[in-house]
Amino acid sequence: MKSMRLGLVGLAVVLGLSACATTQSPTGRGQTLLFSAAQMQQMGDASFEEMKKQQKVSSDKKLTQYVNCVANRVTAVLPDQTQRWDVVLFDSEQVNAFALPGGHIGVYSGLLKVADGPDQLATVLGHEVAHVLAQHGNEQVSRGQLTGVGMQIADAALGASGVSNRDLYMSALGLGAQVGVILPFGRAQESEADVMGLELMARAGFDPAQSVTLWQNMSKVGGSQGPELLSTHPSNSNRIAQLQQLQGQMQPLYASAKTQVKNQCVAPK
Q1: Mean of all residue pLDDT scores within the chain
Q2: SS (H, E, C) 148-174
Q3: Which of 49, 50, 93, 128 is catalytic?
Q4: Using an 8 Å Cβ cutoff, are 95 and 114 in contact?
Q5: Inter-residue contact 30 to 42 (CB < 8 Å)
Q6: Which residues fall within 8 angstroms of residue 241, CB to CB, at 6 or more apart?
Q7: Which of 254, 244, 152, 153 is nearest to 203 (CA)?
Q8: Among 56, 74, 86, 51, which residue's Cα sits nearest to residue 163?
Q9: Which of 204, 199, 215 minimizes the C-alpha distance to 247?
Q10: 182: pLDDT strictly greater than 70
Q11: Which tops the pLDDT comparison, 178 or 50?
Q12: pLDDT band at 223 (very low <50, low <70, confident <90, very high)
């Protein structure tokens, strides 16, 4: 059944790529999107199932509840409330997290040692969910198609065999660091996810000022290379400066939202 689903995705890719859609991202940036929402969801679903096979799911109930609490508050402020989000905590020292089309969020327990408290965790989750909201995965797969890599992605979907093929479309969805194939989001996409993620966390009642502290913490972890999250989400002075500049816009949203928050998320000790 799984190979049939992937085969249908690939067939749709091969037959439908001629319909190139040029649109605007939520922040007004031009995008070329060759894949439908249904195709991206199928790719996201398949990739998430693969991740759950590759990675150990955490059995820590308190940590899992905590991560779900933060994720649920962030996704509760998304424009589309018909989408249900599946949140999984992976038992791994990786300092990382991801979100995929189809409503999937993966968090590595190692991230919780760096993201100090719910506000900092919300920074990462807001950023990752923003990548999905802005269709950055679609952009990446479409870019690959236009440069020739996309046909390999389509072949992977059609064949559903061989780890290297699966890695191609998984990396295009932002999972490169986890599967060993790097296809990082560009600077424009990262900046966009920072801005959108900051607004998401503020509207969810998380303090956007903690985003600056989170990225400062990230830059101090893992020596000169930093944590794995930064291999595809580079932290630099420009990113931190942008987040600082946005505080004036975001703090009023946070002040309004925090008075209405009913479900407080408390990190287990």
Answers
A1: 78
A2: CHHHHHHHHHHHCCCHHHHHHHHHHHH
A3: 128
A4: yes
A5: no
A6: none
A7: 254
A8: 51
A9: 199
A10: no
A11: 50
A12: low
Establish whether 228 is a catalytic residue: no
Write the single-letter amino acid at 203.
R
**pLDDT number for residue 45:** 87
Count the residues in the chain.
269
The rounded distance, in Å, linking the Cα atoms of 68 and 199 is 19
Report which residue type is found at 226. Answer: G
Q: Distance between CA 22 and CA 33 in Å, rounded?
A: 6
Structure tokens at 153: 């992605």
Q: What is the dihedral of CA 99, 257, 188, 235, to 10 degrees?
A: -80
pLDDT digits (tens, 9 = 90+) for 129-174: 999 999 988 887 777 666 654 445 544 443 444 333 455 555 556 6
pLDDT for the residue 170: 59
| pTM higher than 0.85 | no
Residue 98 has φ and ψ, to the nearest 5°, of: -155, 160
Residue 188 amino acid letter:
A
Q: Rounded CA gap, 138 and 37, in Å?
A: 9
Pairing of strands 86-90, 104-108: parallel
